[in-house]
Amino acid sequence: MKIRRTCLAASAVAALLTGAVACTSDAGGPPAAGGVAEGAKRPLDTVCAGGSYTWFNVSDQNVLTGVAEKQKIGKGGGPLTNKLSLLRTPVTAVTFEKGPRVDAGAVLRSLRAHFADTQALDLDGFGFADVHRPVPKLASNTTTVTAAGTFVDYAWVRQVTADFQYTCGGKRSVGRATGWDIDGSGVLECSTPVDDAKEAAPASEAARLACGRNSPAARVKKP
Length: 223
Fold this sequence. Notes:
Elements: E1 3-5, E2 12-15, E3 24-26, E4 41-43, E5 52-67, E6 71-73, E7 78-80, E8 85-86, E9 93-98, H1 104-119, E10 134-136, E11 143-145, E12 149-168, E13 171-189, H2 202-210
Antiparallel strand pairs: 1-11, 2-10, 3-4, 5-8, 5-12, 6-12, 7-11, 9-13, 12-13
C-alpha cells in the first residue's frame, strides 16, 4: 500500500509571546535626581550575559498535536478529507523559579547548543530559540491512499523540555525551558499494526483515539 501526501501543515497562525515579557515592580519613596518617580515601574533584577548553563531533566519526545476521525476508503483508494482536530498546542517558553531573569532567547539558544553537543542534533536553526515563534497550523492536507481500508490522518511535533541553572557574576538563576523542533504528520490504517509502536508515540495515541483502544493499530508490543 502506498500513501501519498501532497500538502503538509507548516504555516503559522499565532505568535506565542512567552518568555519575553518585561517584569516590573513598584519603585517606592521619593525620586532621586534624574531618577524614577514614586509609583513608576522599573525592570526587576536581571543577571549578566556570558555566564554558564547547566542542563538537567532533559525531555525529548514526539507529541501528538492533532488527529482526524477515521475514514473508510473503498477499493482502489482515494483522498482523505476529514479535518484534523487540535489536541495540543506546541509551546515555546522560559519560566524562572529562582534568581534574576535571563534573556529567554539566550536560554533557548543554550539548550539548542546543548543538544548539538550531547546528541549531535541541531534543533531547527534559529526557529527553536525564537520566543515569538508561531505555532504550526493544522492545515487542510490532501492525503491520498492507494488501497482500501480505514485510515486516520494525524499531526505531531517534537517537544523539548529541560531544567537549567545559569550562573554569572555571582548570581544564579534556576528555571525551565521548552520548545519544539519538528512539525510532522502521518497516516495510519486501523487494521494494520503500527511499526515499532510505543505507548506514547503519536501514531499509537492517534490510533487509540480514532480507531479504538482494541484496534490492531492501537496495540503496543510489550517489552
